[in-house]
Structure formats: C-alpha cells, structure tokens
Amino acid sequence: VLSEDGKTSNIYTLKVTVSAQFSDIKESDWYYANVMRAVELGILSGYTDGTFRPMNNITRRDFAIMLAQALGNSNDNDGTAVSRFPDVADDDYGVVSINYLYDNEITVGDEKGNFNPDANITRQEAAIFLAKAFEATGTTSETFTDDAKIASWAKSFVYAAKAAGLMNGDANGAFRPNDKLTRAEAASVMVNAVDK
C-alpha cells in the first residue's frame, strides 16, 4: 500500500479462507467443483436456507430451465409466452425454457403431447436432452454394464452423451438409465457440457 504522498509504502499479506457456499456440501464431495461451477455460471442456485440439496431429484421443468440457460437462453417471461404443451401453463415459471427446447427440437411431448413438467427426469431422458442440445452424434464401443436396461429409444442418445463426455456411468460402469437425475448430477452434466 502506497501512501497518498507517495513517500511511504507498507506490504501486507492477506490470508483468505473461502467458506463453503452451501451448508450441505463439503469440498471433499465428488460433485463440489461442478456444483460451484454451475452456480458461478448461473445454471443452478441454492435454497434460501443456505442448502443446495445435492441428492434431491430434478424435475423435467427445472432441467429444461438449466439446459436452456446453459445454452445462453434466458428464462425470463415477459408475459407473452404461449406454451407449446397442454400441461404447461402460459404463466408457468419454466414455460420460456420449455418452449425454447421445443422450438429447437431438443424435446417433444409424450404420446399425448404433454411435457410432464413436474415429473422427475430420468438419466436416460436427460441424455436425450443433452445429446440433442449439444449436437452430440458420436458413439462408443464401450457399453455400460446395464446396457440392457437402457430403453431402445434412448440408447443412441445415451452413448452419444457418453462419447461426448456429457454423461458417465457410476464406479461400477453402470449408467442407471431409469434412476432419477439428482441436483449434483445435473450440475455435473451441465458443467461437462458448457466447459467441454
């Protein structure tokens, strides 16, 4: 630090300790860096009580919002949004992002034309969204140990997401296609996608 008159200077050493942003996440958790990066990118945030709830599941609506934001699209609704799905209201807090994914052919409705916004997204459904959003078209000869459990309609997307480094299996080499995606996993796949 230099004094105003420019004649005296003092050198100080500052020691900064970065505290954990969330009370339920430790630096030793496998997802810590990905959660913090996802928060930094504005893709995910914590709860008002200071928790992140990393093992909570993600709804299809919230995943759509995260994915649209990862692609640079704002979820702000100016009141003019018209939902593309009968089960998503025009004033739904995720309608802008859900419409964005629909308009960009990242998602379509189910056999009844519904989006099912409140349903928890499965890992294989997330793989489809990610592969389409980031135009992952590759494949790999390395199959997951539970390959037979991956639905035929999702298999090519699952392996495209794997080949692109967007999603991985667990420590045992299983993909767990029907497991619900957790917030920690969602943060990780979003960071994988954005930082790839």
Walk me through this protein's architecture.
This protein is mostly helical. It has helices spanning 32-40, 60-70, 95-103, 123-133, 152-163, 183-195. α1 (32-40) packs across α6 and α2 (60-70) crosses α3 (95-103). The longest helix is centred in the C-terminal third of the chain and has 13 residues, at 183-195. The chain is globular, with a radius of gyration of 21 Å. It starts with 31 loop residues before the first helix and ends with a helix. 37% of the residues are buried.
Question: In a few lines, what is going on in this structure?
Answer:
The protein has 196 residues and is mostly helical. The protein is 33% helix and 0% strand.
Reconstruct the topology from this structure.
Layout lengths: L31 H9 L19 H11 L24 H9 L19 H11 L18 H12 L19 H13 L1
Helix pairs in contact: 1-6, 2-3, 2-6, 4-5
Give a quick set of tags describing it.
196 residues; 6 helices; 0% strand
